[in-house]
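name: query_chain
kind: protein
chains: 1
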Amino acid sequence: MEHVFEILLHLQTLQLDSSCLTCIEAWILNSWKSLMSIILARRNIWDCGRIVCGLASWLHSFQGHCDDNSQCASPEYTQGKNILDAVDTF
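structure:
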């Protein structure tokens, strides 16, 4: 299942809200070259420890449409923070 994005070379819209995601690996983010819109926010349980830095970096440089309400679920000191705000800790 983790290699599903490798075959979607022309993926333009991705809706991953309500997927109970905790993180997205950097190699997956790098495969989203044609992406124009992404939704990540609702009901994902983002781990905003150091692992989130790759996602935050990708979101920061993403030129397409992105919901910006993705909030951290863990660790405790990041709970409720926006992913992009949480990386300031690192």
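note: The CA atoms of residues 22 and 74 lie 9 Å apart.
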